[in-house]
Amino acid sequence: MPSRFDITTLRKLAGDKVFERGKAYHAHEQVEILSLEPQRVLAQVAGSDDYRVVLTGRGKKIGGECSCPAFTDWGFCKHMVATALAADEEPAEAGDSATALGRIRAHLKNKGIDGLVDMVLEMAERDPALWRKLDMASATVEDDDTSLMKRLQRAIDGATRTRDFVEYRAAAGWADGVASVLDSIARLAAGKQAGVALKLAEHAIDRVERAIESIDDSDGHCGALLEQARDIHLAACRAVRPDPVSLARVLFGREKDGEYDTFYRAAEIYDDVLGKAGLAEYRRLARDAWKKLPPRTKVYESAEKRGQLEDMLDFFAEREGNVEERIALRSGDLTSPLDYLRLAEFCLAQGRKDEALRRAEEGLWKFEDDKPDERLVLFTAGLLTKAGRKVEAERHLWRAFEQAPSDELYARLRKLGGIAARDRALTLLDARQSTDHDVVDLLVQTLIKEKLFDAAWSAMERGGGCGAQLRHELAEATRATHPGKALLVYGDLVEQQVKFGRYEEAAKLIRRMASLRSAAKQTIYLADLKDRHRRKRNFMKLL
Questions:
Q1: Is residue 402 part of a domain?
Q2: pLDDT tens figures, 325-367
Q3: 0.85 cut: is pTM over it?
Q4: How far is 80 from 61, CA to CA, in rounded Å?
Q5: pLDDT recorded at residue 136
Q6: How far apart are CA 465 and CA 475, in angstroms?
Q7: Coil vs helix vs strand at 42
Q8: Which of 412, 461, 394 is CA-nearest to residue 433?
Q9: Are residues 101 and 181 in the same domain?
C-alpha cells in the first residue's frame, strides 16, 4: 500500500538536515498520534517541550503547522516530519477510533449531559481563558441589555489590556483572546441586542487602537481585529438602522481623525446604511473640511490629512462619473513633481492624453531649477515620444541625465538616439567620474551592457574600483578575454566571503579560478589559502 505522505516531498519541504532530525524523533518513538483522518493528522510530539502538530493533505500535497518556535521562524519542522513518518506506519484502514481522540470521544458520549457539564465547569475553574469564553456565551443568553453591556465591556477591557509590552511570541495569544470576545459580540449584531453590539464594537475598536503601541504586531493581528470589530459595527448598523445623518457624522469623524484606517472609505462600506441623506451629509462634512485646509508651503505638510479628505471627495465624484471634479481635486495643490506626476497619470488613465502631457510638462517647467524628478521626466518623455515629438523627449531626458545620470535614463536615451546617444552619454560619464565617485559604477555597468570590456576595466581601475557585485559581473563577462584581471577580482571576493563565513560561496569562486590558470599556480594559491585560514575548519573541509 502507498504511504500516506510521500517521503521525497517530505524531505524537500524540510531539507535534508531537518528531515534526518525528524526521522530520529520518530525512531525514538516521540510521536503520539491523537487523531487520524483521511486528510488530517493530529499528533503530540515530545521534544524540549510537548508540541502539537497538524498535518493536512495526502501524498505529495502536504500542509499543516506545529506549535514549536522553529515552525514559526522557518516553516516545515522536524516534529512535522516525525508525525508524517509515524502516520505512514499506521495501517491504511486505521481510523480515528484507535487513536487517543477516538477513545476520548467514545468516553464523552457515555458521560451524559450532566456529566459533561460538570467536567467542563471543573476545567473552566482552572482555565481563565475557557472561563471567559463560557462566561461570554452565557452572558449573551441570560443578561438584560444593561448588565450585558457592562459584562462585555469588562471582557473587552480585560482582553485588550497589555500591562507591559506584548512581545512577538505572545501577540498571537493576546489577539486570540480579543477575537474570542469579539466573536461573542458578533452573535448579538443581527438580533434584538444589535444596539448593544453597536456600542461594544466602537468600544472594542477604541481599546485595540489604544493597545497597538504596546504590542509587537509584526504579523498584523491588530489590523485583523480592527477589521473584525468594524464588520460587527457594520452588521449592527444594518440591524439597528441608526439615524443616517448622525451615523454619517460619527463615521466621518472616525475616518478623518483615526490613526489606523479602521474606517477608511467608510462612506463606501456603509453605503446601504447611510442612504441618500447620510451620504449627502458625509459629502458636506468632507467638503467643509477640505475648504478649511490651509495651503501647503512644504511638500509633505498636511499631506496625510489632505489625502484622506481627497479620497473621500473622490469617492463621491467617481460615483457620479464627474471626471472634472476628480481632476480638480488632484490639481488644487501641486507642491511637488510627484503631485504633477500623479495628476498627469490620472488624466492619462481617463483617456485625456493631451491634458496628461500638458500637466506633466507644466510640472517639469515649474521645478526646472530643482533636481529633476526622474519618474516625471520618463513619463513626460514617453508621452512626447508617442506623440511623435522625439526631439523634445530627448531634450528632457538629456537635461535630467546631465544633472543626475541613471541607468533608466540611459536606457531610454539609448533607445531613442542609438549609437550617437551611447557615445555622448559615455563621454559625459567618463568626464564626471573623477569628481563624482557614484558615476563610476554607472559608467562601468553601462560599458558592460555595451560589451565595451576594455573600457570597462579601464574605467573601474581609474575610478578606484566598484562594488563587489559589479566587479564580479565584469569578471564573469570577461573571464575568457581578461583572465588575469578576473583572477584578481575573484581573489578579492574569496577573501571577503571567507571573512564573513560564507565558505561555500568562496569555494565556488575558487573552482572558477582553477579554469583560468595552470594547475601548478592553482596549487600554490590553495596552499597559501590553507596556511592563512587553517583555523577555519569548515573552510578547510571544503578546500
A1: no
A2: 999 999 988 889 999 999 999 999 999 999 999 999 999 999 9
A3: no
A4: 14
A5: 63
A6: 13
A7: strand
A8: 461
A9: no
